Amino acid sequence: MKKLFISLALLLCIAQAGAQTKSAADALKVLEKAKADAENPKKGASPATWVKLSSAYLDCYDAPIKTLWQNASQLEVKMLLKDQKILSSEQKEVGGKMFNVDSYEDKDLYYDENGALAAWVIKQPTLKESDALAEAYRALLKAQELDAKNAQGKAITEQLQGLQNRYVNEAMNYYTLGDNKSAADNFESVLEISSNPLLNTVDTAVIYYTAYTAALSGDSERAIKYFSKSIEIGNDQNGDVYSPLAESYKQAGDTLKAKEILAEGFTKYPTNQGILVSLINLYLESKDDPSKVLSLIKVAQQNEPTNASLIYAEGNVYKNLGKFDEAIAAYKKAEEVDPNYLFAPFSLGATYYEQAFELQQQAAQEMDDAKYAELNNKLEECLEAAIVPLEKAFTLTEDKDIRMAVAEYLKNVYFRFREKNADYKAGYDKYVKYIEDNKQ
To answer: What is the pLDDT of residues 81-137, one digit of tens each?
Structure first.
C-alpha cells in the first residue's frame, strides 16, 4: 500500500492558513475583493468573476505553506521559514512511526526518521468560518453554470484539476498522520470533482485509496462501495481487492456475502494467497464446511509450502473436528517448517492437554479397572507430551496474556507430576509464582 501511495508523486500541501503572515494577509485582501465582485449584480453575472473567487480561496488555502514541499529537508525548511520562530521541538509517534515535530505559531511540521518533511498540521486557519477548498469548488460550479458560451472552460478545467491535486495532497497528509476517516473524505472529494463534466475522468487509483482508507477507519459501508467499484472498473489489484472487500462485508455483519466475494475472487485468482488465507480464516471463524476449508488449505500450502501458518490452520481444522492425532501431526509439521512460529508449539501443547482432559472424562466413566488404568496411562502420556512444546511456547513470546495462558497449562500439568521428581515440583512452583506475580 505504501508503494501505491508514493506512486502518486504529489506534493503534500495542507494549507488551512496560518497566523497572519504577509502571504496570508495578502490572500485575505484578494479574497475580500473577489467576494465583493461576486456579490455585485453586474460582475457576479460573469463566470470570470467566480473563477477569480475560486482562485482567491485557493490562495488562502495555499498561503501558510506555499513555499514548502514534501520531502524538503529540515534545514531547507528552516531556511525558508527563517522569519518564523520554532516554539518547540519534540518527538511524536503516529501509527507506529516516529516523527520529529517542529511547532510554529500557526503549524506543526512533521519530519520522518530521515529528516524529510512528511506532513504538517495547520493550527490557525486563515478562513476560520469556512472550508477554503469547498468554497473554491462551489465558486467553480457557479462559474460553470454561468459559462454558457464556454469562454472560461479552460480556466475552470485547470482550476478543477488544481483543486483535485490539493484534495489528494490533503488526503495523503491525513493518511500519514493516521486520520484515515479524513483521508477517505478527501479522496472521495477527488472523485466528486473527477465526475464533473469538464473532467469526466475515472481515477482508478483514487477509487481504491478511498476504499482502503475507509476500511482502515472502520467505515465498512463506504469501503464496500469503493472496493466494489474498483472491481467493477477492472482495477482489482490482481485479486488483492477481494480480501478487504470481504472483510468489509464481514464487519458489516454479512458473512454470507463475504464468502461469496472470496469465492468469486478465488475462482478468478486461485493462486492469490490473500484470498485463500481470508477464505480459510472465514470458514474457520464460522465453523462451517470443514472439508471445503481443508481443500482450500491444501491449495494454499501448494502455493506456499513453507508457510507455517497454513499448516497450523490445517491443524486447527482437525482439532475442531476432534481429530487430535491429525491436529498434532500438523502442529508438529508447522513447528518443523518454522521453529520460531509461536502458535505451533502453543497449540501442540494445548492439544495434548485437551486430549488428556478427554481421556480423563472417559476414565471417570470407566468401570473396568484394566481399561481405566489404560486410559489413565494415556492421559499421563499426553500431559507429559505437552510439557516440551508448552515450555518452548513460553520462551518464544514476551506477550503477557499468552504467557499467562501457557503458565496455567504448565502449572496444571506439573501439579499432576509434582511428587514424581524434583524437576516437576520445581516446574510447578515456578509457574505458580509466575501466575501470582503477574495477576492484574
So the answer is: 998 999 999 999 998 899 999 999 989 999 999 999 999 999 888 898 789 999 999
The grid cell for 324 is 487430535
On whether residue 320 sits in a domain, the answer given is: no
171-197 pLDDT, tens digit each: 999 999 999 999 999 999 999 999 999
Q: From CA 384, how far away is CA 404, in angstroms rounded?
A: 19
140 Cβ contact list (under 8 Å, min separation 6): 50, 51, 54, 156, 159, 160, 163
Residue scoring higher pLDDT (431 or 268): 431
C-alpha cell at 307: 508457510
CB 415 within 8 A of CB 422: no
CB contact burial 120-138 (16+ within 10 A = b; e otherwise): bbbbbbbbeeeebbebbbb
Does residue 321 belong to any structural domain of this protein? Answer: no
- DSSP type of residue 45: G
Task: Please classify residue 32 by burial: count the beta carbons closer than 10 Å to its beta carbon, then call 0-12 exposed, 13-18 middle and 19+ buried.
Answer: exposed
Q: Assess whether 163 and 222 both reside in one domain.
A: no
Q: Where are the alpha helices (DSSP H) in 217-342?
A: 220-232, 242-251, 255-268, 273-286, 290-303, 308-320, 324-337
Cell 469562454 belongs to 151
pTM of the model: 0.73
- Domain range enclosing 257: 202-304
Residue 188 covered by a domain: no
Q: Is 94 helix (H, G, I), strand (E, B) or coil?
A: strand
- Classify residue 333: in a domain, yes or no: no
Distance CA 3, CA 1 (A): 5
Residue 17's pLDDT band, with cuts at 50, 70 and 90, is very low
Whether 31 and 135 share a structural domain = yes
